[in-house]
Each structure stands twice: as structure tokens, then as C-alpha cells.
Amino acid sequence: MGTRIVDSADVSPEANIGDGSSVWHLAQVREGATLGQGCVIGRGAYVGTGVQMGDHCKVQNYALVYEPARLGDGVFIGPAVVLTNDTFPRAINSDGTLKSADDWEAVGVTIERGASIGARAVCVAPVTIGAWATIAAGAVVTKDVPAHALMAGVPARQKGWVGTDGVPLVQDTEDPTRWQCPRTGTMYVVEDTTISQVENS
After folding, report:
1. Pairing between β-strand 140-141 and β-strand 134-135 as defined by DSSP bridges
2. Same domain, 153 and 173
3. 0.90 surpassed by pTM
4. Residue 158 carries which DSSP code?
């Protein structure tokens, strides 16, 4: 398939861009970053040094994915999302000198397979977003998120569950441990903070 990198994009020759991936106008992909197959990096997006991205990820316009973020296959990063990497940010040291790369330790955000981060959401490192979870637009995530969780607000709190197609699940009125996708009919069972799909439902 080949890759598509437009002329105005700034892609390091030390980055690894997977087959079929596209990097659009004014985007920057830093040294050592790895994009899997079929990824899309939108206009003005930033992918930091050494960031690891699986296959078929989408990073929408002006999103900032700071190192050492790790994205699984099929992760969606909405427009203007920020994945931070500094728990205690400062521009200067206590003696007034400008901080350098050696004066702090980067911590990352991990996003597992199929999860989606809505527009302008912020994930404050270090956090892990579970597989197929959905973070609502504008949310601020400060704690780990379970798989399939629907999170919203500042700070983000769980509002429900979502299926693999992203549609919020509906709780069974007779059995509160059972949740169903209204689109596909797929059934899930929740135990504490763990959700699992019921086979052949």
C-alpha cells in the first residue's frame, strides 16, 4: 500500500511509519516513534519521541501525543486531545535555572485496543485507558479507566459501559449485572469493575 506523508509534515527519518499510514499537513512525528499499519495522523498533530502506536490508529487534528505514550491497535484520539507526560510540571528548577531534559522523568499514558478519546479530552499521565473504553469530549482523566468504561466530566467519572462498537450499553432491569448493546443485541456481564461479553448471546 505504501505510506502517504504530505510535504508540509515534519516526520523524522528515525521514525517508523507502517505500511498504508498517512501523515497530514503540518503534523510532526518525532524520532523513534513507531506507527503501525494503516494509521492516520491528522493536520497539526504531534507524536512525540519514541511513542508506540499499533495498527489502524487515528490521531485527529491538533492532538498532542507526548512520549512515552503507548497506543494499542485501533485507538482513536479525537481533535485537540492531550496525552500529558509530566506529573509535576515546572519550567524552572528551584534555583531559577531552566529545566532541561535531565531534570525530570517522563511518564506516559497507555491506551489499550479499540479505546476512544473524545475531542479536547486530557489524559493526565500516568494513566491506563482500558480496551474499548470511551472518554467523552472535554473530560480530564486522572485515574486508570476499566475496559469498556464510559467516562465523562472533570475529573472524569464512570457514567456507564460501552460495547466494542462504541454505543452505550443498556442495563437489564431485572438483572443489573447484565448490559446489552441496543444496536447489536450483544450481551455483557459486569462483575465489580470487570465486564465481559457473553458468548453466543
Report:
1. unpaired
2. no
3. yes
4. E
